[in-house]
Design brief:
It is built from 11 helices and 10 strands. It has helices spanning about 45-55, 80, 100-110, 115-130, 145-155, 175-190, 200-205, 225-230, 240-250, 275-285, 285-290, and strands spanning about 5-15, 20-30, 35-40, 60-65, 70, 85-90, 160-165, 195, 210-215, 220-225.
Length: about 300
């Protein structure tokens, strides 16, 4: 039996006398699990993830991570907690004047990794999320899905046992959402516990993983992995995404296409060591790397590419 890694016991987040973010949440997650948290906007999905990263503190009840009660954690210990987990935020925040590999390297230097560690680990991390071939691109040259992969790469700099992803496919179309989810599946297959807040039901049911449903801060359903495939999504509830597919099918009539000649893709080129070495000077010493001043780049509304 897998060891319990995360435990919520009657956890509540109360903003005022009558306004709750979460209400009496009790659940557990084992090490190596892959869990989706779903629900309407404001249901409490993001709040639940923020309890684990201590962006939000429980006002009552208990939240345990690796046996440690997070509500008792001192503020000075919060950065250390977050270094033991990967966090993929809802917004795509990348430094616009830094290349893909530099965005990852900059994050590593900011938390104290040596130049030698950066030189060794950055190419490995980028390859692990299938973005190594775009290592020299700037954020504005990336599609929305590629930016998401860079965010995931940046969350992996400490090889964390836990990954928290808040709406990682929120700005992507169904096909490209699946590409990002496949990256998360690969990480999970290597032993990483993955928790995802999402409303992308078509992808979620294709994944066939455990689903926890929230409504107004309350857990109203907890569907085991084996039962997910037997319980397809409600067509009326998720009509907008289905309408998108139907309209797209109407506008794009099927035509018989000639068989495509598949070409051997060129293998991605590794980042030359001298490139990383020269980039270290731009990134600066550890002290300079701890205070980024650039404004991060965000996904534009409707940016659906990967």
């Amino acid at each position: 039996m897998s060891e319990t890694s995360i435990s919520f016991k009657n956890a509540e987040v109360r903003y005022s006398r009558h306004v709750f973010g979460l209400r009496r949440v009790t659940l557990s997650v084992n090490q190596g699990d892959f869990v989706f948290f779903i629900g309407k906007t404001g249901a409490g999905k993001s709040t639940l993830l923020k309890l684990l990263s201590r962006e939000v503190r429980a006002t009552s009840g208990s939240v345990l991570y690796q046996g440690r009660p997070l509500e008792r954690l001192r503020e000075r210990d919060v950065p250390g907690l977050r270094r033991n987990m990967g966090i993929v935020p809802q917004e795509t925040l990348l430094l616009p004047r830094k290349r893909v590999w530099e965005n990852v390297a900059y994050a590593m230097r900011a938390i104290g990794h040596s130049k030698r560690d950066v030189r060794r680990r950055v190419p490995e991390i980028l390859e692990s999320v299938n973005i190594g071939q775009r290592a020299d691109a700037f954020p504005h040259e990336l599609s929305g899905g590629e930016r998401q992969r860079v965010l995931i790469a940046r969350a992996l700099i400490n090889d964390p046992p836990l990954l928290l992803a808040d709406e990682p496919t929120g700005n992507l179309d169904p096909e490209h959402s699946w590409d990002v989810m496949q990256v998360l599946l690969d990480l999970n297959a290597r032993g990483t516990t993955v928790l995802v807040a999402s409303h992308d039901m078509m992808v979620i049911h294709r994944m066939n993983r455990r689903i926890i449903t929230l409504d107004q801060g309350v857990v109203i359903a907890d569907t085991a992995q084996e039962a997910v495939i037997q319980d397809p999504p409600d067509a009326d509830q998720w009509q907008p995404r289905l309408d998108f597919d139907r309209e797209q099918a109407k506008e794009e009539p099927q035509e018989e296409a000639e068989p495509a000649i598949e070409e051997e893709p060129e293998p991605p080129q590794p980042i030359p060591p001298e490139t990383i070495d020269s980039g270290m000077a731009a990134i600066g010493d550890e002290e300079d790397a701890r205070a980024p001043t650039e404004q991060p780049i965000r996904n534009a509304p409707g940016d659906h590419g990967v």
